[in-house]
Design goal:
By secondary structure, the protein is α/β, with parallel strands linked by helices. The strands form four sheets. The protein has a seven-stranded mixed sheet with strand order 9-8-10-11-13-12-17, sandwiched between helices. A five-stranded parallel sheet has the order 2-3-4-6-5, sandwiched between helices. The chain has a five-stranded mixed sheet with strand order 14-16-15-18-19, with helices on both faces. Strand 15 (507-511), helix 21 (515-527) and strand 16 form a beta-alpha-beta unit.
């Protein structure tokens, strides 16, 4: 069968193992060809090709529901559910999404860009199925890294309490998340991987009991209990935790043995109860470079398939904000042993891999457990440590209650660094860091800041660590502006102090964080129209520099705010509230992200669609205030 001719995943039913293995080769070939050309997630999808094909052999995809955790392991799923020909558009504007998306395909039963959600969603579908009296299978596929998330464990706890609710959880165990997983559960799974497979012991016991004279087919209840006890005795290290939580455990299964996988999944479906199938896979399977470097090839920019090396950018890029943060924090940690860097399974993405490598005893990775990371930091702070919690803006949303309850209310000196704040590009709506200004402004005692460039990032980091209360520092994704940075000796900022970058009398532009550079470019365009803008780098959204802003606004009478975040409750709203509280009645034009989801595209494409490019903003300002009259 040619994968390109596949119109429905059910067409794979009945293929021989060798035919399915040929389809697996086609999936990997297409996957590698697309990602090497345009970039995207690589290792996760390559590792689950056989798992996907085998699982779908045992399902009717017209009825049955499969929920893929996170979704970047769902590329093989996309390739056999009608998106083969469009796969070249992966993660590009108006193209195939990098994660599962309900609006994209009827086979995408649940969309997610954050980990640990699949079991909860699949269990919800199973409960709905049973309440409606319907009959279809519900399956959750979750990675071992995502299993460290509290939500996944909560869902397992609930599902195990529903013995008559059929649900299959496939644990895709590749000993990795984005980085190697951490914690006791990971250690436990390592032991399980080395144990001999346990699949059908209970069935074997039952068959043996049936052959005992005078018993036959009707097994007394007492012997059924013995059957369960014998099974548990045989699983001391292999599935005991899951068995005690109410699941029937099957595994560990070779995740690249299609025949064994098909047999195991069929057996799991027959049990009509919560079952956990433990499948051991190799992340990056089939591409030697990805197998050898499972962290580096989790996701890749365009690369040479032959050598595995990234294709260099035509234009050299400045060092990323994440790298500058990591280098600066490392230096601070060298000078102060009380400073601790904390990440939630994102060492490389946040720049904390430098700290992990050089001063591991001042580095903590809690796994995919953002809520725990925040409260852990709060506990450290209570005892005199100086925790710096580096989490993507979009992932810190998951710990909103902890930010309020455990840090804000107690006014604890914890520093938060929100990486990937603003528009992030190809990862789409689940990853846009557009909400943090709004969701953190309301939290008591927090100081919120954002740098205009790399040098100011360094100053803000030392300001945050020195502050006696909680702080949040947002930094954008990608390269900095190329400004010169210092190796040490950074001067802290005065909390709540803004700065005037350019003088002007026609319009006042107050910009926050990454939008300061755009404000400067916008002002240059306005200057060509004989419109002179006064530009203020706000630096802080909480507290605002009212001593600087209010007199300027009262004098100029026309105010524009610029932010790379949602307008509802954002930086511009803070300025409007400041004016209202101080009875300054002047027009304010807020520029930022309106009440929309920002889909996957390049950052510039997204900004252009939102009207956030400098030339667009200049035109909008002129039109709003009729400055060309």
């Amino acid at each position: 069968m040619l994968l390109s001719e596949l119109s429905h995943p059910n067409e794979l039913h009945g293929l021989t193992v060798s035919q399915l293995e040929e389809v697996a080769c086609q999936i990997r070939e297409r996957h590698l060809q697309v990602v090497s050309t345009s970039g995207g997630h690589l290792g996760p999808g390559l590792g689950v090709v056989e798992l996907t094909l085998a699982l779908y052999q045992t399902l009717d995809l017209n009825l049955d529901k499969v929920v893929w955790d996170v979704g970047h392991q769902g590329y093989p799923h996309k390739l056999i559910t009608g998106r083969f020909s469009d796969f070249d558009s992966l993660r590009q504007q108006n193209g195939v999404a990098g994660y599962l998306k309900r609006s994209e395909s009827k086979f995408d039963h649940f969309g997610a860009g954050h980990a640990s959600t699949s079991i909860s969603a699949a269990l919800g579908m199973a409960i709905a199925r049973d309440r409606k009296g319907e009959n279809y299978k519900c399956v959750a596929v979750i990675g071992d890294g995502a299993l460290t998330g509290g939500m996944a464990l909560e869902a397992i706890n609930h599902a195990g309490h529903l013995p008559n609710t059929p649900l299959v959880v496939v644990l895709n165990d590749n000993d990795m998340s984005i980085s190697p997983p951490v914690g006791a559960l990971s250690t436990y799974l390592n032991k399980v991987r080395l144990s001999p497979p346990l699949q059908f012991l209970s069935d074997s016991v039952q068959e043996s009991v049936k052959n005992i004279p005078l018993i036959g087919k009707d097994i007394p209840e007492e012997l059924k209990n013995i059957k369960g006890s014998v099974r548990r005795l045989a699983v001391p290290k292999v599935g005991a935790v899951f068995e005690e939580l109410g699941f029937t455990y099957m595994g560990p299964i070779d995740g690249h043995d299609i025949e064994n996988l098909v047999n195991t999944f069929n057996a799991a479906h027959r049990l009509k109860k919560p079952v956990l199938v433990h499948v051991v896979t190799t992340k990056g399977k089939g591409y030697p470079y990805a197998e050898a470097d499972q962290v580096g090839y989790h996701a890749q920019s365009a690369f040479d398939l032959t050598t595995g090396k990234s294709i260099p950018s035509k234009k050299p890029k400045p060092v990323s904000y994440s790298k500058i943060f990591g280098q600066t924090l490392l230096k601070i940690c060298e000078q102060d042993s009380r400073v601790i860097g904390i990440t939630a399974a994102m060492a490389t993405g946040t720049g904390l891999d430098l700290l992990q490598k050089n001063i591991p005893n001042q580095y903590v990775d809690v796994g995919i457990a953002e809520q725990h990371a925040v409260t852990l930091a709060a506990g450290m702070s209570c005892e005199g440590l100086k925790p710096v919690v580096a989490i993507y803006s979009t992932f810190l949303q998951r710990a909103f209650d902890q930010l309020i309850h455990d840090v804000g209310i107690q006014n604890l000196p914890v520093s938060f660094v929100l990486d990937r704040a603003g528009i992030v590009g190809a990862d789409g709506p689940t990853h846009q860091g557009q909400y943090d200004i709004s969701y953190m402004r309301s939290i008591p005692n927090f100081v919120l800041m954002a740098p205009k460039d790399e040098s100011e990032l360094q100053r803000m980091l030392i300001t945050s660590i020195n502050h006696k209360g909680p702080t949040a520092l947002r930094i954008p994704r990608g390269s900095g502006l190329g400004v010169v940075v210092m190796d040490e000796g950074w001067e802290p900022l005065n909390i709540g102090e803004a700065e005037i970058l350019e003088e002007g009398n026609d319009i006042l532009i107050i910009a926050y964080g990454s939008m300061v550079a755009s404000a400067i470019k916008t002002a240059e365009i306005l200057k060509g129209m004989n419109i002179n803008a006064c530009i203020v780098n706000a630096r802080f959204v909480k507290p605002l520099d009212k001593k600087l802003i209010l007199p300027l606004a009262s004098r100029i009478q026309k105010v524009v705010t610029m932010e790379e975040g949602t307008l509802i409750g954002g930086f511009g709203s803070a300025i409007v509230e400041l004016f209202n509280d101080n009875e300054v009645n002047i027009p304010v034009y807020r520029i930022g992200i309106p009440d929309v989801l920002v889909d996957h595209a390049s950052p510039d494409q997204s900004k252009e669609k939102l009207g956030l490019m400098p030339d667009q903003m200049a035109d909008r300002i002129v039109e709003k205030f009729k400055l060309n009259n």
